[in-house]
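[DERIVE STRUCTURE TOKENS]
===
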Amino acid sequence: MTLTTLEKVTFTALSIGILLGLGLIVIQVRAYGARNQGVLAEIATIQALTPRTPLAKEEHAAEDDRDSHDKLNINHATLQDLEMLPGMGKTMAQRILDFRKEKGEIKDLNELISLKGMTKKKYAALRRFLTAKGGREGGLGAGKKLNLNFASLEEIEKLPGVGKTLARRIVDVRNQRGGYHTLEDLQDVPGLTAAKLQKFVDLIEVR
């Protein structure tokens, strides 16, 4: 079969068109491949910068015996002792007592992290006032002064010139602030004038 000149020209044009099309396809495939390689490289960079360990509860350092002598020993604390701690409340205090009864003894405060309702903020506050090693048993500090950060409502009421209403305000402000840091913090207690504070300032401390 002999092709005419027109057929030859048409066939040649089609062949060239097909080759050009294949060439364009190859070029596009290579371009997409290069682009994908760039994306993969970016993903690998991000993965390298991202921690691969799963999220977990924050671990806290074990207690230091050297810093526990003024803290309340959680294994000897009563419900009232725990309830009066800043930010504690009766419900959490009772959960701690139930947990202690089940365990027999709390050897490290880190064990409290598993309790229902124990937030990071609340746990950090409790570590300031509680210990599982050494410490003390009552509302009073190591000296003769009353530590307002550990004192019960009844103990504060007995201070000269305080009474039940003012004692409740002192406890409320203590809970709101997460504890007293200095005696100057007592200025935030409504109704506690300088004259009233002067009556018992030598009988109290905050630690």
About this structure: Residues 5-49 form the longest helix (45 residues).
